[in-house]
Amino acid sequence: MNSINRTLFIPLYGKAYVSRKGLFLDDPLAERIWGENQFPLKGKARSKWLAYYLGIRAAVFDAWLNQKMRKMPDAVVLHIGCGLDSRVQRVGAQGHDWYDVDMPEVIRHRRRFYPESENYHMIAGELPHLPWLSSVPRKSCIVIMEGVSMYLRGEDLQDFVRALSRQFDEIALLMDCYTPLAAKLSRFRNPVREVGVTKVYGLEHPQVLNVDGVHFVQEHPMTPQRFIDELSGTEKAIFEKLYAGRFSQKLYRLYEYKKG
Fold first, then answer.
1. How do residues 41-83 score in pLDDT, each as one tens digit?
2. Which helix (H) or strand (E) is 100 found in, with range?
3. Cα–Cα distance measured from residue 113 to residue 11, given in angstroms and rounded to the nearest whole number
4. Taking a C-beta distance cutoff of 8 angstroms, is the pair 97, 117 a contact?
5. Are strands 76-80 and 98-102 parallel, antiparallel or unpaired?
């Protein structure tokens, strides 16, 4: 796998770690896949604090997706950069057509653990190269982009949003982003560097993706208090300071967009 593909092992480890501890997520498949495919993570990439953060981030995305699936019963679900994530099992397709999308090498690896079904599909495709998008039915669409945007330039993100808008009349999109400050600081201490990624990008203003009828709706909290409260004592205090305090909020953002 190339360096960007290898980043999938960081959230996989984080989800397996918190699931084993009974925090934030119930994800036995992440536990099993990590146990069978332990990638040699080191340093910050394997810290419990990052695992807590990634577990909470995944739970936030799951909750948002659940809500949107109830509000948009005819929508397809498009999970961009799915890696080895088991969101389709944690949330359930709930009668929606669900498409997990990632680079061809990742999808080949993913097929070892996830069988396709009438409602669940996997697509080998990349951003910003988008011919694969035409294979998704022209319905309304719920789009999840977790841990993806920081590997794409702003113009590539704009091109992706334009392509979505050409394909779908109604869109709900949730995407986490680095700020430009986070992208700059990543040269010094960023877990993705430990798997070989040396270039990431930050988004200055969410409105830069207001293109072709898609517009910014709101910013969501990345680490809601209800999840932090699952921790206790010193761990809770340290996590609140490192990953939920003011400095963290200057680095990481969670943006919702919509069309229609």
1. 766 767 899 999 999 999 999 999 999 999 999 999 999 999 9
2. strand 98-102
3. 17
4. no
5. parallel
Encode pLDDT of 215-225 as tens digits: 999 999 999 99
List the domain boundaries for the chain.
Answer: 3-259
Sorting pLDDT into bands at 50, 70 and 90, what band is 245?
confident
- Give the Å distances, CA to CA, from 110 to 115, 119, 136, 154, 219: 9, 17, 19, 28, 31
Q: What is the pLDDT of residue 217?
A: 98
Contact predicate 209/157, CB 8 Å? yes
pLDDT for the residue 204: 87
Name the token pair of 238.
């340290």
| Tokens read off for 123 | 């697509």
Between helix 233-243 and helix 48-71 the angle, nearest 10°, is 70
DSSP β-ladder status, 252-259 and 215-219: antiparallel
**Angle CA(163)–CA(147)–CA(87) in degrees, nearest 5?**
90
DSSP code, position 220: -
Q: Tokens for 148?
A: 């993806």
Tokens found for residue 113? 């653990």
Residues comprising the chain, all counted? 260
Beta bridge partners of residue 102, listed in sequence order: 124
Residue whose tokens read 């695992």: 51
Q: Quote the mean pLDDT of the chain.
A: 90
Helix, strand, coil tally for the chain in percent (to 5): 45, 15, 35
Predicted confidence band at 197 (pLDDT cuts at 50, 70, 90)?
A: low
Q: What is the pLDDT of residue 98?
A: 97
- Please give the Cα distance from 52 to 60 (Å, whole number): 12
3-259 topology per CATH: Rossmann fold (3.40.50)
Q: 67-71 long-range CB contacts below 8 Å, 24 or more apart?
A: 68/142, 68/172, 69/94, 69/96, 69/142
